[in-house]
Amino acid sequence: MSEPTGTTEVGSHRAAPIVGAGRAPALTARGVTKTYTAAPVLLDAELQLSFGEVHALLGGNGSGKSTMIKILAGVVGADPGGTVEVAGGAEPTDLTRWSAAEARRHHLRFIHQDLGLVPDLTVAENLFIEASLHARRGLVSWSRLRRDAEDVLARFDLDLAPEALVSTLSLAEQTLLAAARALHDVEPGGRAIVVLDEPTAALPSGQADELMSAIRRYADEGHAILVVTHRLGEVVAVCDRITVLRQGRVAATGPLADRTEDDLGSLITGVDAATEQRTARATEPHAGGAHDGLRLQGVRTDTLEGIDLEVRPGEIVGLVDAGGLTGSRVLRTVFGLERLTGGTVSLGGRPLRLRNPGRAMAHGVAYLPGQRLREALFPGLSVGENVLLASLPAHRRGGLLSIRRQRSAAADAVRRFRVHPADATAEVTSLSGGNQQKVSVARWMVREPRCLLLEEPTQGVDIGARAEIWALIADAVDGGAAALVVSSDYQELATHCRRVVVYARGRHVTTLTGADLTVPAIAEVVHHA
């Protein structure tokens, strides 16, 4: 692979040569174009990676980042005209002939937003699901599988039991496990190209820092790292170079140098940070009775013990879990997905009989799960069908569903919630991760819920779409809804919540509010919990 020597304009700065001194080129993709149903997602894009560097691929939702990664992984075909050249290859390869097998053969390793874990298999089985070295004469050596799993878990400092089912792990633990699976076969002294799509989206700040430190270490050992992230602080802290996509085109590329988070935000949005208005909304609860909102008293399930919690109408309350699955389980219990064995859940001063999600929905409860593709969306359906699934009875006419009403309502919702592309008939899986999340949020907002249960509502969402989603939440709360948000993004909780309740292994630790509700305060409580 020839080493480019030119310079590239990044914003108003002149960038250094494409490949830093002493850093060998690892991968060069040129002329990358991809079109879906006549709508271009990537347009003549270029990406160049070097060994020994962490390279950030940035852009808003729908900018083409995920499509670029899927093309490099060989799971999505590019339009004719593009090429990819990998270190050690004799010549560039036509991207229309690039495949997953070719990517693997050239030592490309991927961690996608959909982690690809099997919930009903153990940690050890997921780590080595593609390996045959633990099988002899068609039989698996379970003792060797366990030993090797323990070695990998120790190497990545993961406090997980090899025999634990993945379905019992938190989102953070699942993300870390997926990272370990992708990286464990990269041998010391060898060089690989590691691509991570939003690897820290579901992680608390401490665990995210640990993972980013591991990524930095791998680059320092000589590997080429490509990271897609919306957490711009991570880019400033860890990355060497950036490429910014905007509407499918490369808007900027070059060294990070001394750029700040605001600088990166401006490159991504195309709006100067000095003129961009960023407003935080710490909502005031509505006037009314002391217990008019959501109230949990002594709630017990098979996995919860004595949970007391209150969210008033017009209030956003955050819930941080320093260990375990308390937050997720609380949301699932209120939505009728986990059986209540003791205590009471009330809404508007009236106890709820939470036998199933249907009963919860009838009481005005809405639930957005944290696993977007597996739990929040229906991949085989269109955007419009996904939006309307929770409100079909509203589109009946004479006892029958009105197709005309459904189409009109779907088109209106796509416009109202700014889903891009604005096509209600498109497959929901064809959308970017951020736009898929908008669809998930829209499904519940059209019902005008009294209680919002939100798990990681902006996970994997770009800076612009995050603001839009929080604005939708704030609008619902302004209308009298009570919102309980489980999130690992301390900055968002400190910005948008009136109170943040911290739990550790099912035990209430503290509640932060007012001047005490800051990112450092949340992090300190979680660290010492």
How would you describe this structure to a colleague?
This is ATP-binding cassette domain-containing protein. Keywords: ATP-binding, Nucleotide-binding, Repeat, Transport. GO terms for molecular function: ATP binding; ATP hydrolysis activity. This protein is of the alpha/beta class and 529 residues long. Among the domains are: 1-107 and 239-274, P-loop containing nucleotide triphosphate hydrolases (Rossmann fold, 3-Layer(aba) Sandwich); 294-364 and 449-528, P-loop containing nucleotide triphosphate hydrolases (Rossmann fold). The chain contains 17 helices and 26 strands. Strands 8-11-12-5-13-14 form a six-stranded mixed β-sheet, with helices on both faces. A hairpin with a 2-residue loop joins strand 25 and strand 26. It is globular and about 70 Å long. The termini are far apart.
